Amino acid sequence: MSGITADDAMAEAPQERQGDSYLTAETGLASWLLTTDHKRVALLYAAALTAFFFIGGAAAVLIRLELFTPASDLVSAEGYNRLFTLHGLVMVWFFLVPAIPNTLGNFLLPLMIGARDLAFPRLNLFSWYLFMGAGLLLLAALLLGGVDTGWTFYTPFSTGYAHSNVLLAALAVVLVGFSSVATGVNMLATVHLLRAPGMGWFRLPLLVWSIYGTALVMVLATPVLAAALLLVVAERAFGLPIFDPRQGGDPLLFQHLFWFYSHPAVYIMILPAFGVVSEIVPCFARRRIFGYTFMVYAILMIALLGFLVWGHHMFVSGQSLYASLVFSFLSFVIAVPSAIKVFNWSFTLYRGQISFQAPMLYALGFIGLFTLGGLTGLVLASVPVNRHVTDTYYVVAHFHFIMVGGAVTALYGGLHFWWPKITGRMPPDGWARFAAVLMFFGFSFTFFPMFVMGFLGMPRRYASYPPEFQVWHVLASAGAVLLAAAYLLPMGYLAWSLVRGRRAGDDPWNATGLEWRTASPPPRDNFRVPPIVEEAAYLYHPRHEGPRHEEQEPHRDQGGGT
Amino acid sequence: MSGGEARAILRRGLLTWAGLLLLLLATLALAYVPMGWLNLPVGLAIAAAKALLVALVFMDLRRRDLLLRLAAGASLLWIGFLFLLTFADLLSRP
Amino acid sequence: MSGDVAAALREPWDSLRRQREAAEFGVWIFLGSEALLFAGLLLAFAVNRTLHPAGFAASGRETDIVFGTVNTLVLLTSSLAMAVGSEAARAGLRRLALRALATVLLLGLTFLVLKGFEWAKDLREQLWPGAGFRLAEPGARLFFGLYWTMTALHALHLAGGLAVVGWLSWQGWRGTRPLGSPAFQVAALYWHLVDVVWILLYPLLYLGGRA
């Protein structure tokens, strides 16, 4: 029924909207800044996030430079505190949390479910302005001298002792949280109410499912962070005692509120990455995804269980040992759905017709790095081992494997995979493969030594260190050079491809999914004819047969694509 | 006809409002009755009753709409997680 | 009527029924999110009350029961008016809807004015937990730290609700927004949530330690 009414709406649409892509349908700065097109809002987010990636990345470069030598010679200890706080604040809230959901998710979600736009297009634009407002507040906090509490804002340091712009930074994070909630509301309503005729829940591509899980976490976790930070603001700005231990308050209360958000925030970062990899792997293995239903349940289990493990950040804080044991147990439990996903990707590869184009190389890199990050998470979830490595570089290495080796690698993979859809141009495959491999090795050289030095006892958040750790720090800093090159290189050749890249057809990777059934780049209203879905996702081959061998030469020429 | 509709809307609203008022008077009166540790649970139970009345009638949750109940129920479940695990720590600290 | 529907229909929806469903679902998710925001503050209250039961009982006696109760009454009544306004708008009863919305605005403003007088009285009675705070019981400062934060955050939400209801009433009165728009139900749902938050704050802040 709704298909018929959609047809009528299409017939009434002005003729010029039918011809142009969303990029050329309207022109001028105002047509971008006031757009309600989800695809354009996605590009607005992408531009803003690139800027924040550079700011956060610059801080990382300075940190690695400082740690090249044992002495604190480039910046003071105080300046170092501000550097890693800047790096954390920018990268967590202004890059990683919105990275995939607000760029690729924003662009692809309506396309993948066959909708014309998100459920609330103006709310979508509004969330971008909230994001920019929050970003400007944060930049003000940084330019006025920075913040020295670390991204965690722990009390009583943040409320009573820190001499830096804690208030501005906390308000920026509260505001960016509202932007996150607006995005979450929008995406949940879209998935529930705008699916095309025939697009049942178990026909949804896994990226849609993972965005759905992410939106759930955003909506339910973010307000608790806002509560925690507003209480910090009340205590610091107005002198209202809330957590102050001198008045009988409980600083651990802050940590409970903070980690109730900030642990699930890890899943906000990694769930969309799972979705991206689940799209890429079947396409370049020419296989149906192995165990689709279990993949869906695993996403939902992770979204749910992610809320029940926050206490593993507090094993040494003075939290009750009994609570720690419960949190430790639940942290082991959440490894199960994550492992299901890794196994299912591996089984999808099994007997597949694998070709190693750039998106696939990123996806394979993701699987390796995420697995290592996840397994070291199990080490940290064990209370006795955790006491040994708490606040060492082991922890730093672990969460960078998940958030950078995992989420950022998947973001780059997804960017290459959907670049033809977004821009209508192919990325240069040879360069792209080189960058993907460089990213894997650069990342490993940077962060693997941190496991070793962390286990040997090198604490995090220090500008100077005993000389016996220098060899590991030099390795990490050298690796960071490769990693930086691997991040910058795609920005160069992707920009080049906008002008000189080969034009892409509607479906250059021969993939399934509704987003490939429309033009590249898509028209303003996404589909010229409203799609009707008649089959499940990932139909790369008939259900009871393997992939057809003649379809794609498994080991075709891999190097000379350019 | 539309006058009758207006009256029906007002009547339903006023009935609920009267119920809320009674609950308010009850909780106010009971707050001054010494019941030891029971005072807080009684106060919160009456508050929950009032909240439920507002949710079911004024916010129209009595309508059988699974989606809206899902949204409302999920937030209550997650609030439960927050309290349960925080108190698991607080109450078992040495 | 069909012109009315066309005026209320927005992209990307094909039918007003579906659009209204989405608006209500969206605002319910947002309300769930708001509930978790206040749940964070309530958790802070619960934890500190567990740590200092005597101090919290002693502090509960110091808040102004008259202001608190009258304000609860005002908010409950405003919720009645809001419910009537929302249903009347949906039924196309213009006069009843606009009168009900005006009552909501009046009662909301009454709440804020009364709250202002109450805060002034609290300040005169030295219940700001800074220098010169009147109560000596351990935990009393924490109670009032939370009292000020929670009532201020609630008042902020109420002021936001007033702005939205005022804007919609203006548009409804001028006729620029059709009464069939889902926005009236959305605003009503938000208003009721602000009411529910106050219903929960009332026994915690005003009724503790009275017996």
Tags for this entry?
heterotrimer, B: 94 residues, mainly alpha, C: 211 residues, elongated, transmembrane (chain C), membrane (chain C), cytochrome-c oxidase activity (chain C)
Descriptive account of the structure:
The complex is a heterotrimer of chains A (562), B (94) and C (211). Chain A has 562 residues and is an all-alpha fold. Chain A has helices at 2-12, 16-19, 29-33, 38-66, 77-113, 121-143, 157-161, 166-193, 206-238, 251-285, 292-305, 321-349, 358-381, 383-389, 393-423, 429-455, 470-500. The longest helix of chain A is centred in the first third of the chain and has 37 residues, at 77-113. By secondary structure, chain B is mostly helical. Chain B has helices spanning 2-31, 39-58, 66-90. The termini of chain B are far apart. Chain C is mainly alpha-helical and 211 residues long. Chain C has a single domain, classed as Four Helix Bundle (Hemerythrin (Met), subunit A) (Up-down Bundle), CATH 1.20.120.80. Helices cover 80% and strands 0% of the residues of chain C. Chain C starts with a helix and ends in a 5-residue tail after the last helix. The model of chain C has no long low-confidence stretch (mean pLDDT 94). The chains are: A mainly alpha (562), B mainly alpha (94), C mainly alpha (211). The interface between B and C is large, with 47 and 49 residues.
Give the topology.
The complex is a heterotrimer of chains A (562), B (94) and C (211).
Chain A lengths: L1 H11 L3 H4 L9 H5 L4 H29 L10 H37 L7 H23 L13 H5 L4 H28 L12 H33 L12 H35 L6 H14 L15 H29 L8 H24 L1 H7 L3 H31 L5 H27 L14 H31 L62
Helix pairs in contact in A: 4-5, 4-6, 4-17, 5-8, 5-9, 5-10, 5-15, 6-8, 8-9, 9-10, 9-11, 10-12, 10-13, 10-15, 11-12, 12-13, 13-15, 13-16, 15-16, 16-17
Chain B lengths: L1 H30 L7 H20 L7 H25 L4
Helix pairs in contact in B: 1-2
Chain C lengths: L1 H7 L7 H36 L1 H8 L4 H27 L2 H31 L15 H35 L8 H24 L5
Helix pairs in contact in C: 2-3, 2-6, 2-7, 3-6, 4-5, 4-7, 5-6, 6-7
